[in-house]
Amino acid sequence: MQLNFTVNGKPCQLEVDADRRLVDILRNDLDLTGCKEGCAEGECGACTVLVNGRATLACLTLAASLMDACVLTIEGMQDLSPLGELDSLQQAFIEEGAIQCGYCTPGMVLSAHGLLEQNASPTEEDIRRALAGNICRCSGYTQIIRAIQRAAREKREGI
Fold it and tell me: What does the pLDDT look like over 63-115, one tens digit per residue?
């Protein structure tokens, strides 16, 4: 099938099998390796990207469902910043020590970004619910939640 979709704000056309997984397309065809495959079963969230603004597991998403979709990967987050710097959410993860081994971080950041696009003032429960599909084996989530709260506060205050 001819797949037409947008990845990180850029139009993309690929000839792919309809049952090809998004994680494979991103990693193997587009060389966007920030999307990790941790379980291939939709359990860990390491492959989380945003599809049309919603946190989506790339290991379970087939090419057939992506026609005309907009996909945002961790690599595209810097494109959101006017000067190509780290996005404020990414910076908050660094400053709050929310990055341990880093394997889950892209999925965590994208899940959090999707939440903050929908809810500028999330409660801790909102954050936990948004991260429910993302497993971090290194942290106790405390730093991750603090980072998301910080990014939300800074976004609201225009910092």
Answer: 999 999 999 999 999 877 777 788 889 999 999 999 888 899 999 999 999 99
Question: pTM value?
Answer: 0.94
User: Which pLDDT tens digit goes with each residue over 32-68?
Assistant: 999 999 999 999 999 999 999 999 999 999 999 999 9
**To the nearest whole number, what is the mean pLDDT of the chain?**
94
Amino acid identity, position 126: D
Which residue matches tokens 């810097």?
A: 78
Q: Which of 76, 97, 113 is the last residue of a domain?
A: 76
Structural domain count, the chain:
2
Residues 6+ apart with CB under 8 A from 35: 22, 23, 26, 27, 47, 48, 49, 58, 73, 74, 106, 107
Residues 66 and 90 in one domain: no
Residue with tokens 């945003």: 50
- Cβ burial 71-89 (10 Å sphere, 16+ → b, else e): bbbbbbbeebeeeeeebbb
Cα–Cα distance between 56 and 82 in angstroms, integer?
25
